[in-house]
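User: what does the whole thing look like in 3D?
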Amino acid sequence: MTASVAIPTRKRRSQSDTSGIGPTGRMVLGSISGLLLMLLIAPMLVLLLMSFSNADFVVFPPTAFSLKWYYKFFAMGDFLSALLTSFEVAVAASLIATLIGLPAAYVLVRRRFPGRRALAAVFLSPLMVPQIIVGVGLLQLYTALGGANSLTGLVMAHVVAVLPYVIRTVGAALSTTNVSIEEAAADLGANQLEVLAFVVVPMIKGGVLAAALFALIMSWINVEISIFLTTTGSYTLPVLLYNYMEYSLTPVVVVAGSVSIVVAVALVAVIDRFIGLSSAMRL
Amino acid sequence: MTPEDASVAAKASTKAEFMVGRLWLLLPATIVVAIFFVLPVALTVPKSVFRDGSVNFDAYAAVLGDGYYGLVLWRSLWLSFVSTVVCVLLGYPIAYYATRLSARRYKRYIYMIILAPLFTTAVTRVIAWTMILGNQGIINTLLMQLGWTEAPVRMLYTDTAIMTGLVYTMVPFSVLTIASVLENLDGKLEEGARDLGATPWQAFLRVTLPLSAPGVSAGAILVFALCLSAYVTPALLGGGRIKVMASLVFEQFMRTANWPLGSAIACVLLVVTGFVIFAYGRVLERRVTLGEDRGRP
Amino acid sequence: MSEIGVVCVQQVSKRFGDVPAVNDVSFVVEKGEFVSLLGPSGCGKSTLLRMIAGFETADSGSILFEGRDYTNVPAHLRPVNMVFQSYALFPHLSIFDNVAFGLRRKKVPDKEVTRLVLQFLDLVNLNDLSARFPSQLSGGQQQRVALARALVNRPSVLLLDEPLAALDLKLRKKMQVELKVLQRELGISFIYVTHDQEEALALSDKIGVVSDGRMLQYGPALEVYDRPRSEFVAKFLGEANIIQCTVRASGDWLELVAAGNTVRMRALAESPPVGAKVLLAIRPEDIVLSATAVEEDNVYPCVVENKAFSGTAPIVWVNVDGKTLSVRSADRRTFDAMEVGMPAFVGWRSTQGVLIPEDHR
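Assistant: Here's the predicted 3D structure for the full assembly of 941 residues, as structure tokens:
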């Protein structure tokens, strides 16, 4: 008697599905993943929801909704000035990091030289070295040099913190272009800067923009380093929030948090538009 | 040939000059990183032993002698470890689903959802979790309304709260690293296994899991290092009572103003993190040798 | 400063890691010469070209342009221009801007730029396309743009890296002719890298055969073809039958013995000593084949092994005392008359054939 072999029927699936998991299995896995993804978003949604609450304390569930606390948030001097400071620092840090990171990434990706790997590792190490150590170190350095609360000092600290993201994103963009085109430009008489400006950047425009935006967000949300280098009057938004949170959770803080989220989501969407998130986040 | 060409040939006549000409674009970034990153980090060590112009190992004596610091270090390692494990356990199914099973157009949205928390401040995440875990938070309100408990259950300011916050922060990293590992893994290997008679579960267990292990461990080590260095999340979610290494450092610098002690603790943290990073590098090399990682820097 | 040609490569070497890509290569390109660097894939000819262009640095040796040392000068300062295999056109610039690129880097005034760009686009027959973009052009058109872009800068020497490799056969042949005409008109030296020996023979004044990073032979095309100095060159450039012989007699005539057969050759300037083992290379097109006896200095009976038709030069393989020789001729009647297994005669004149030393592995 011959044994019958069940031949799995191929239904329409996504191209990368090679697991052979049947419909029930996929449903289970899908549900688990869906649930987990919901758990990821949920806190953010809760925050957004609660920011519209009318109550004077943070109480769940919200009984009435209004923009009351938003008005209060934007009327509060210290929040507004923190918002402004965060913005100034983020824009400055992003610009500087992109300006120095772009050529650096170019040389690291295109040229071979002794010590290249080590240098690349050093440039990328702010991602792995505890930010607290960098913050503390800079605090000591700045203090020794005269002042630990300057805006410039803060900006430069942010520059090194976001530089890895710039270098990574630009590096990834560079790996998609044809080296011969750059060689042709050099062959025709363009020096390195001219090659970068007239040929490379136009070809990786989206990547450069994504890198700058990446740097912008990462600076915007930074608290681990900023907390050491700011003081009353020069707080960035995250640091101000931290100080508030050390005491208690008030509705204004909730609003501040949700403003933060909105900015973040907007920036993520823009980055995705320009370079696609999966390539930008190659870890 | 023109006269300009002639003078050009006279210049750049040594190979060294040639190399410098090609590398100078690195200079601005190198200087900035050297001054604002390498220098401060390197200073941590001397700062911990120089006090008022003389070498002083008091801080280290305190750190290494007092059992309290050992306890804090142990707690930091333990909390980070558990958080990492949970991250991997949660991250793997999501990553597997995203890479293998989801339709192409959904993948993008899944990535956006996963990435979103990463682009918010640590404080924002803490705010959200405080609202969920607090005595008047969502969970407690729900529990009390359902009548399951009379007094609010203490969830905030506990080890669990810290780990929840850490996991929430790190799951995106974990999903992304595992997803990139799975994307690079050739699906044909799974198919081959099933072709030879294995059930999907067996194929996963015998083929996908072992092959993805090095990459997943590299991701886990990264998460572990990040958990160890976190201080905002543990400081706020742990309240004043539960301390980890990083929040100790923070305290010494911002509250107690005992900088040498803070530096000493920071040094210990740096050394421990250094070990972890080293392990990461080694596992990463193994990935390249195994042909898994196509040599991305 | 000496006037050694337009390009002088002196004992240039480069290694990548442990592998020597270019090994002690020297040659000179004169003004107005069309030189081909010919060799199989991976032999180092492209690396050599890139070193002349300035994209790779030499580990040792020097590269001179009109007698001046440019060895360590970066690519953008060299008086050479290159046409890339992939054309490497700037995708974000129009054809006009592509061709104008080099001129603008030299700060040539706009009016002059326009005049020159249009002149050279006309030269390569692409007048109407200056406003288009590279992605809108065919492969052949892109290639011409690449040419115009390089030539408009009036380099002393143009480097071409297998520029026709991506084109189909007919287009390739057409472009070969155009390239040759262009080169003659402009009087610019060309250094042309290719693995196609027919192409090299058709286009070049001089050929350099490269293998494993070494320049095996460099000289006028016909000379390299007629007088190869190594087995590799004999086999790579054209076809060759290689026969192992021993020298029996030297003097006015050279007598060689191979498998019991005697070959008579006219004496050479430097004849090998009696008893020496040499290789005789004789080209298939130099051998005469006939069913009846032939009148040549060297005649041997043979048996037909096989034959294959080709439009221009059908080939017949014959066996002479265990050695297979290939014979090519345009004579259809002889070809048609040959049958496998049939006895026949082959022969060649004593002035034909070349002695080459054995390749050392």
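In plain terms: Residues 67-101 of chain B form the longest helix (35 residues). The first strand of chain B starts at residue 50 and ends at 51.
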